[in-house]
Amino acid sequence: MKHAFSIWGVILLYIFLLPLPALAGRRLSVPKEYPTIQEALEAARAGDEIHLSPGVYTEHITLKSHVSIYGADPKTTTISGAPQNSAPVVVVEDGAILSGVTITGGNNKIKAAVLVWGAAARISHNIIKNNKRAAIKVEGQKASPTIEYNQIYHNGQTGCAAVELVGGVSIIANNKIYSNDGSGISSLKSAVKIEKNHIFGNRESGILVAEPPATEDESPLGKNWSYPQAIINNNLIENNLGPALLCQNASPYIVENTISGPAPNPLILLFSSGARIKRNKLISAGPPAINITSGNPLIVENTIKG
Predict the structure, then answer these.
(1) What is the CATH number of domain 2-305?
(2) Contact at 8 Å (CB) between 204 and 183?
C-alpha cells in the first residue's frame, strides 16, 4: 500500500505542477462580446477565460490548450449537441478547464459527450446528462484529467459506461454518477484514482476495472507499470444492477469503501485478479459479498453484513 500511494504522489505532482502559460489571461464573455462559444474560442489565447451567460448553446467545440470555460450555473447554462452532428459536444485539450455547465444532446454516433485527451485538464462542477453514449471519455496515454464535483446521469447504453477511461492517468473524485444505462465507470489500460464518489443505480456495474497495460511502453506510469493501476478509495457504491465492482485481469487497491447492492449479484466479482480489498464495509443482499472466480486477492479487515 505504501508503494501504491507513493506512486500516486508522483502522479499528483505531475498533474498539478505542470507549467502554466506565462500570458496574463483575459475574460471573454458570451454572448455579450462574442455571439457563440466558437467565436470566443477563436479569439482566445492561452490563459484566457470564457464566461457563459445563462442560456442554451447548440455547438460542438474544442476547448483548446490552457483556455477555460465557466458557465454561470449548470442549472441555467447548457451546451447541447446538434442531433445529426457526430462529433463530441466538447473536446478538452491540455490544461483546459470546463466548469459550471450542463452538457447534453450527444448522439449515439459519437465517442462521448466530453472527450478528453489533454494533459492536466479539469472537468468540474458540471451536469452531464441525457447523452446516448459515454458522458466523459478519457483517451490516450498523455491524458491526465481531474474529474470532480460533477453530476453524471442518464447517459450511455448497454456496454457503455458513463465515464470511460482508455489510457492516461485520471483522478475521479467527489462526483455523483447514477442512473446510467451502462456501468458508472470503466477503466481499461489506465491508471486511475477513484475516491469519494457516490455511484448508484446504474444498470450495469458500478465500477469496472480491466486489463492493465501489458508492457511498460503501454503504461502511463512508465517504469512503475507493475504497481496498482487503480486505487478505489472511500466511495459509496450502492444499488447498481451489476456487481458494484468488477475486476477482470486487474489488481486494484479497494480500500475503505461502503458497498451494497441487490441480489443476485455479488458486490465484488474478481476474474484473474490480485486485488487488495481492505477495510471496506460490505452489505450483501443475498449472494456472497465477494466472488473469486480466479486469482489471488488479499482480503483483510473488511466488515461484511447480510
Answers:
(1) 2.160.20.10
(2) yes
